[in-house]
Structures are given as structure tokens and as C-alpha cells.
Design brief:
Blueprint lengths: L7 E5 L3 H14 L4 E5 L2 H5 L6 E7 H6 L1 H6 L4 E5 L2 H6 L4 E4 L4 H15 L11 H4 L5 H11 L4 H8 L3 H15 L4 H10 L9
Parallel strand pairs: 1-2, 1-3, 3-4, 4-5
Helix pairs in contact: 6-11, 8-10, 8-11, 9-10
Length: 199
């Protein structure tokens, strides 16, 4: 792998809509990664499959191509539609995808932290993503937002006006270029501003 190339993740699933949604979340969780998507196992095989850091694969594709993924189980995450499916594939890490967005993001962050605690085995973040962009007060407001507090609750906790909270909230979203609390949650956890167990 060239020194300048970014590590890659492959999503292999015939469900295009689910694939696109997962790709967006993974790019937010691991901005240093390139995420490629494939609708079938044969598509993956014709694109240098061993160049990938991780595979996020639908259960049906894993079951049909079990020898390939068993050999690479340390980097395979099976996408399951029910919690009982995960127990059938105990050889693999699994991700239950049929759950609310905030729980799915928490599960992906937990997987990432388990596999790459404190970023070990991960390449360094680009400098621009490591920089401190937010003020201390904005970080404080952000941590309360991602923990599920309302603007009024944040205002009461920090003893500031609700208008000030709304201004901070807008500034945080603008500075980070984010449009959703989910994206903000990922940023906060990945930068160590909020403990994953508090979201």
C-alpha cells in the first residue's frame, strides 16, 4: 500500500439503500477511511479484496461465501437484521443494523473502540481533523447536546440563556460542517469529549 493511500473499508450488501446509509455513517466515524460499496461478492472479488482493512458484509453473503470470510474473520463485520442472527455466526463480529440511528451509531463506535482502542492499529488522523476547532464552552454545550439534553436543560445546567445555547449550537454545527446530532455524536466520541456510555 502506498504511503499516501488511505485505508479502505468495503461494504458488501445487495441492499443499496442500507449500503449508502452505512457508508455515510462509517465515513463520519472514520473520516480517514475510504469506503467502497459492492452489491455482490463477485464485485468485491474483482476489486482486490485483500486490500481492505475491514469488510461490512450482509449475513446472506457471508453464509454463501463462508470460507473466504472465515479466513478473514478478524476484519469481517457481519450485518445482521435481528439479534438472534448474530448468535448463529459466533465466529464473527456482528452489527445489528435494524435499530434506531443513535443506537446503530453507538454500536459502530463501540466496535471501533473495541477493535482500535485509543486509535491503535489506525493510521493517524489528518492534521485538520485533529485540530481543536471549538471553544471550551462550545465543547461543553456539545457534550450536553449529544447526551440528549434539550436547549432549556443545557441553559439551566450552564446557567446561561436559551438564546445563548441556540447560538452556541448553531456555531458548533457551522464550524464542524455538520447537520445532525448523530454526526455531532460521532465527532464528540471520536475526539474524546464524551464517553460512549453516556450517550
Amino acid at each position: 500500500m502506498e504511503a499516501t493511500s488511505r485505508p479502505k473499508i468495503a461494504i458488501i450488501d445487495s441492499n443499496t439503500l442500507a449500503t449508502l446509509g452505512l457508508k455515510q455513517i462509517l465515513q463520519n466515524v472514520m473520516p480517514i477511511m475510504t469506503v467502497d460499496t459492492y452489491g455482490s461478492f463477485s464485485e468485491l472479488c474483482s476489486n482486490n479484496p485483500d486490500s481492505y482493512f475491514h469488510y461490512f458484509v450482509s449475513m446472506e453473503i457471508v453464509l454463501r461465501n463462508r470460507p473466504f470470510f472465515l479466513e478473514r474473520r478478524h476484519k469481517t463485520i457481519v450485518l445482521t437484521l435481528s439479534l438472534s442472527d448474530a448468535s448463529q455466526l459466533s465466529d464473527f463480529h456482528s452489527l445489528y443494523i435494524n435499530q434506531p440511528e443513535h443506537l446503530l451509531i453507538k454500536a459502530i463506535l463501540a466496535l471501533q473502540q473495541h477493535a482500535h482502542a485509543k486509535g491503535k492499529n489506525l493510521p493517524k488522523m489528518p492534521k485538520v481533523l485533529e485540530q481543536k476547532i471549538l471553544t471550551d464552552r462550545e465543547i461543553e454545550v456539545m457534550s450536553y447536546i449529544v447526551q440528549g439534553n434539550t436547549n432549556k436543560e443545557i441553559a439551566d445546567i450552564l446557567n446561561i440563556s436559551m438564546a445563548t445555547v441556540i447560538t452556541h449550537r448553531k456555531n458548533i454545527m457551522d464550524k464542524l460542517g455538520m447537520k445532525s446530532v448523530s454526526a455531532l455524536t460521532i465527532y464528540a466520541v471520536m475526539h474524546g469529549y464524551v464517553d460512549i456510555n453516556k450517550i
